[in-house]
Design brief:
The complex is a heterodimer of chains A (about 90) and B (about 375). Chain A has about 90 residues and is an alpha+beta fold. Helix content of chain A is about 20%, strand content about 25%. Chain A has two helices and five strands, in the order ββααβββ. Chain A starts with a strand and ends in a 5-residue tail after the last strand. Chain B has one domain: Methylamine Dehydrogenase, Chain H. Chain B contains two helices and 28 strands. At the A-B interface, α2 of A face loops of B.
């Protein structure tokens, strides 16, 4: 599936705006991303598997709040950095 | 003083680097041998919240930087060439994953970094918000939770709830290592108090007797205090100083009781503040930077008149040092934002919330502004560079 990467995370992806990753759930997809781009996951997912406060993840434009969400190869994933102050 | 002349190190003579952590990145201010000429680096990790940047005194090349951003979680960056290049820790500090159905701790930010004992190259400690202790044995590449504290059955009681801390989160700070014994550690927590371990962090005991905690209804509580900055003197490791929420204190460890040495400060100034700085060769000489802790705690200098104060007799008397400082200003000097070098005479450095870096080449007798218009300064470290 294709993942749109926000600018704060592109230092991990070699400046790529869009990356590819696989997995049957959001958790598996994030693990795959972290294998390809080490360090990526912990910046947006905490040690208790919670999505960090100012990070939003959308699957096919639907906001998700849980890493157990099922994903399909054709899904589009958007990782968004929400407003977080000045 | 219990020190002898043979134990007192010679004053440093080489160049000094002032490592500055700010709300929008880090900076390095490099001085020459005379400490008269300074050059400010471009911002390092611009836009990142740089809580603490520390040089490893064991190799004088390795820098660790505790950082996060408004969006992204906490991490530690490492440089082995004094800031030319950086790499992120492969395994940054994090709390253990809680068992299914239980709520685990989430690291908000790494607040404090301390290089390990001189006999343990590569070892570092980190303190976090919320209060947690972490350890790296490989120069900061990978970090492990110090279970002896983070999983201690009393940890939650010692630290209180998430609201029992500073406005931007409760913190562990002031990680001190006894130079005679790498297993003898002290930590400070806001809130929580001062704690001691004599077994390398496997177990901890509160060390707060004699210290006030006037924001708790319990008289003389065992823990729950608010030390702002705690330091042991490297030449007299059984002497501790702390700038606390409730005053300036000294402890002779054998006595096991904090003595409020800030009572001898001028009444109109008081003895509330964030940082405390020790003379590297004289355990009786201590600098503080008082702030207004009245009413709603402005945390600016009392009456808007910034001044450093020094005692040269372990707290019996204090002297005001404000020559060169603004006559009226409303900044705050945070707990990590004041430091010293090891020259003769000792150089002092402090950073302000208004983004100014002030320095004195003569122990505070005269102050000069070395940099201004920086972002809000969180931390300042003064490090001796190799010649």
């Amino acid at each position: 599936m294709k993942i749109n990467v926000p600018t704060p995370l592109r230092s991990y992806t070699g400046k790529q705006r869009v990356i590819e990753a696989g997995g049957a759930t959001l958790a598996e997809m994030l693990a795959d991303i972290d294998r390809r781009y080490p360090g990526f996951r912990f910046r947006i997912i905490d040690e208790q598997d919670g999505i960090r406060p100012h990070i939003k993840i959308f699957v096919n434009e639907q906001l998700v709040r849980d890493l157990s969400v099922v994903t399909q190869p054709a899904d589009q994933i958007d990782i968004i950095c929400a407003l977080s102050g000045g | 003083m219990k020190t002898t002349s043979t134990r007192i190190p010679k004053p440093a003579t080489g160049p000094v680097a002032v490592l500055i952590g700010t709300r929008k990145g880090a900076f390095i201010l490099r001085g020459d041998n005379t400490r008269r000429t300074w050059k400010l680096s471009p911002p390092i990790f611009l836009g990142h919240i740089a809580h603490h940047m520390v040089l490893d005194p064991r190799d004088r090349r390795t820098l660790l930087l505790a950082a996060r951003t408004g969006h992204l979680g906490p991490t530690v960056f490492r440089s082995t060439d004094f800031g030319k290049t950086w790499k992120e820790a492969e395994q940054p500090p994090s709390f253990p994953k809680a068992p299914e159905g239980q709520q685990g701790l989430v690291l908000d930010h790494v607040f404090w970094l301390t290089p390990g004992h001189v006999s343990q190259p590569g070892l570092w400690y980190a303190g976090s918000s919320p209060q947690g202790l972490f350890r790296s044995e490989d120069d900061g590449r990978t970090w492990e939770s110090v279970s002896g504290f983070n999983d201690h059955p009393m940890r939650n009681e010692w630290t209180g709830g998430a609201g029992d801390g500073t406005p931007d989160g409760p913190k562990m700070h002031s990680i001190n290592i006894d130079p005679r014994d790498p297993n003898h550690l002290y930590i400070g927590m806001s809130s929580g108090g001062v704690f001691e371990s004599i077994d390398g962090g496997k177990d901890w005991k509160p060390l707060n007797k004699g210290c006030e905690a006037n924001f708790i209804p319990t008289p003389d509580p065992e823990f729950g205090h608010d030390p702002h900055c705690v330091l042991l003197h490297p030449l007299m490791p059984d002497r501790l100083y702390q700038q606390n929420h409730c005053g300036i204190y000294r402890m002779e460890r054998a006595d096991g009781r904090w003595i409020r040495i800030g009572r001898t400060m001028p009444k109109q100034v008081g003895d509330i503040g964030f940082p405390v700085v020790l003379h590297p060769r004289d355990p009786d000489t201590v600098w503080v930077f008082p702030m207004d802790g009245g009413d709603v705690w402005p945390r600016t200098s009392p009456d808007g008149k910034p001044a450093c104060y020094v005692t040269r007799n372990a707290g019996k008397t204090w002297q005001r040092l404000d020559t060169g400082l603004p006559k009226l200003a409303w900044f705050t000097v945070k707990r990590q934002a004041m430091a010293n070098d090891a020259h003769d005479s000792v150089g002092l450095y402090f950073g302000t919330t208004s983004g100014e870096l002030w320095a004195s080449r003569n122990g505070g007798a005269k102050w000069t502004c070395l940099a201004s218009h920086l972002p809000e300064i969180y931390s300042v470290e003064a490090s001796e560079l190799g010649k």
